[in-house]
């Protein structure tokens, strides 16, 4: 229930910000409304791509850290 409320709150915030920014720049309620609808749609479409990119970044960082730990462990054993 809390997760759903948070999601609805986030969508509402995005729509409000998109509308406000577009209205401030153009003075048009219609363009503000269009921006308020398009912005959350774009977020929904692009968020999975964003998450996949960060998953790959995390994987590379973890692999690099693991390799560094193995090198350090080998140096300790050889010493």
In short:
This protein has helices at 2-26, 29-78. It is an all-alpha fold and 79 residues long.
Can you offer a commentary on this structure?
By secondary structure, the protein is an all-alpha fold. α1 (2-26) packs across α2 (29-78). It has helices spanning 2-26, 29-78. It has one domain (2-78). It has two helices and no strands. The protein is elongated, with a radius of gyration of 22 Å. The model has no long low-confidence stretch (mean pLDDT 90).
Note the topology.
Blueprint: H1 2-26, H2 29-78
Largest sheet: none
What's the Cα radius of gyration? 22 Å
Number of domains: 1
Secondary structural class = mainly alpha
Give the end-to-end Cα distance, rounded to a whole number of Å: 56 Å
> Stretches where pLDDT falls below 50 for ≥5 residues?
none
Give the overall shape.
elongated
Give helix and strand order, one letter per element, not per position.
HH
> Which percent range fits the helix content?
over 70%
Mean pLDDT: 90
Please report which band the strand proportion falls in: under 5%, 5-15%, 15-25%, 25-35%, 35-45% or over 45%.
Answer: under 5%
Overall number of strands: 0
Count of helix runs:
2
